[in-house]
Amino acid sequence: MERPQNMSIAPRIAVGVIILFHAVGLVGLSLPATRPLFLQVVPWHLLLMLLTIVFGHYKLSGRFKAFILVVFWLGFFAEWIGVHKGWLFGNYAYGTTLGVKMFDIPLMIGVNWFLLVYSAGVTMQRSGLKNGFVRVVTGAGLLVLLDVLIEPVAIKFNYWQWIAGSIPLKNYACWFLVGAVMLYVFELFNFKKQGIAAPALLITEFVFFGALNLVIGLWPL
Fold first, then answer.
1. Residue 105 above 80 pLDDT?
2. HSE-CB of 123 using CA atoms within 13 angstroms
3. Pick from 190, 205, 219: nearest CA to 19
4. Where are the domains of the chain?
5. How far is 23 from 16, CA to CA, in rounded Å?
6. What is the distance between the alpha carbons of residues 39 and 161, in angstroms, rounded to a whole number?
7. pLDDT in tens, 81-102
8. How many CB atoms lie within 10 A of CB 45?
9. Could you say which DSSP state residue 59 is in?
10. How far apart (Å, rounded) are the C-alpha atoms in residues 178 and 181?
């Protein structure tokens, strides 16, 4: 793939960074001896992925920066409603793994929402699906499937904890709705077709959390 002139990071470099650091993280979190250290660097890993994706975006315009802020704060506000009101997702509380909090919500959760929504949006953009509604619904469905893999890992590693001890179905329904709203916002911004970094991140996340679930199942933590 030819490198667009306005990209700060070549697509192959961005994909390499994404795969390399997820692979290292997978090994580090799988081994009891290194797990505490790797849990401490989870927020830094998210920041690295943020930089990789942002500087892998074609044409770093003011519109793109506005999109990042919109999705960040939409995600943060949705989580605030979930934690403090229980209207979204269910009754849960965040642990310490995701780092610094504001109003009991880790700031990194807004970063995570951006990474996931942008990755799903670009994946749908590149999918060939012509209908915007179908792209939004399909992308939101992908985010729910990914959350199915994330939840057991997040609970084990103290990203967050469910007050009732089990994951409510409401969580997945709200993931779909919140994801669909943010993907609709992605559609409204109508970005030019992007490179492969964001889809690579989405695929890598599926592999990463799927593999961690296998590790958890084979070797209880």
1. yes
2. 22
3. 205
4. 11-218
5. 10
6. 16
7. 999 998 999 999 999 999 999 9
8. 16
9. S
10. 5
Closest to 118 in 3D by CA, of 61, 154, 69, 159: 69
For the whole model, what pTM was predicted?
0.93
| Gap between the Cα atoms of 25 and 23, Å rounded | 5
3-state class of 9 per DSSP? coil
What letter represents residue 21's amino acid? F
Q: Which residues contact 115 (CB under 8 A, 6 or more apart)?
A: 46, 49, 50, 53, 201
Give the chain's count of helices (H) and strands (E): 8, 4
Instruction: State residue 174 phi and psi, 5-degree precision.
Output: -70, -35
**Contact in structure between 212 and 153 (CB atoms under 8 Å):** yes
Structure tokens at 122: 């670009």
Rounded Cα–Cα distance for residues 193 and 190 (Å): 9
- pLDDT tens string 7-30: 467 888 999 999 999 999 999 999
* Residue 167: DSSP 8-state: -
Q: pLDDT tens, 70-82?
A: 999 999 999 999 9
| Alpha-carbon 176 to chain mean position | 14
Q: Please give the backbone phi and psi of residue 57, each rounded to the nearest 5 degrees, phi first.
A: -75, 135
Q: Which two tokens stand for residue 94?
A: 């965040």
Q: Tell me, what amino acid is at 32?
A: P
pLDDT of residue 165: 83
Give me the residue label for tokens 């959350």.
147
